[in-house]
Amino acid sequence: MDIRQIRTFVYVAELQSFTRASAFLHISQPALSRQIRILENEVGIKLFHRSGHGVEITEQGRVLLDRCVSFLNQFESLRTGFEPKAHSLYCSGEVTVGLPVPATRFIGQDFLARFKKKHLGISLKIAEGFNPLIHEWLLSGSIDLAILYGSFSSSILGRELLAVEDLFAIGAATPENLARSTISAAELVKETLILPHRPHILRTIVDELGSDASIIEVNAITLMFEMARSGQGYAILPGNALNPAIATGDVVALKIKNPTLNWEVGIWHSNLQELSEPVQLVRDMIREEVVHMVEKRRWSACLAADLKLTKRSNSL
Hints:
alpha/beta, D-Maltodextrin-Binding Protein, domain 2, two-stranded antiparallel sheet, 11-stranded mixed beta sheet, 3 domains, Arc Repressor Mutant, subunit A, 13 helices
């Protein structure tokens, strides 16, 4: 057993696909399959159940996965453990945060300006993308932190829940839409929906409704909005993503009911290495910004229980 086999196994388990892991690790699929087969022979257990939809880790495989992630974490600590650590008041470094487009409303230029003023030595960079792409950036180490929507199982990544945010049906400002403030899920799935491709979390949420809705697949929020505004269908988005357009009457945001559709908003990091001091400072200020946005009603979301407790303890 060597480090390559361990890494391959961990990333196949994380991505739940030999094809995606092959592309992510930049090795051929036959070579990747061979590494997994050798590892299975060495440990004497079957690691994955294979199907046409990907792979699912076995119960015994999950036990090995936990040990492998722990090993990789220790290996990374050993590799970086001799780097000097700053303990001065002046902290320096570079931190990159991956953000989906809606999150740029609360982690935008005002936030960046305040952060720069407070932490002169830290270069904070923003990388914008859709959930699946940001997920891969975090796995590869291209970014240090990520705001991601939804909840999914991961041994490599850790999450802190920030808030739960309602989703709205964004449609044209027609007389019918202007006369109402809500739409039922049953009504909505009879309409044409404008949604990103799978495996985006919005598609997963709609798929869970068990509907055969007509869907136009668009992987650009600006285009989703323009199509909804022109009456080509309804985009499903968080209200904060389009607040200015909603305020001017360009579009209508209808609250979805029976059931209410929402998603969890979390801040994610890699479990394979310790968070540096600059990364921790960025994470802490994002937490503070989320609390501030919700308290000032600039973001319509429900704070996570842990953030509520933090806010309460800080006010005592």
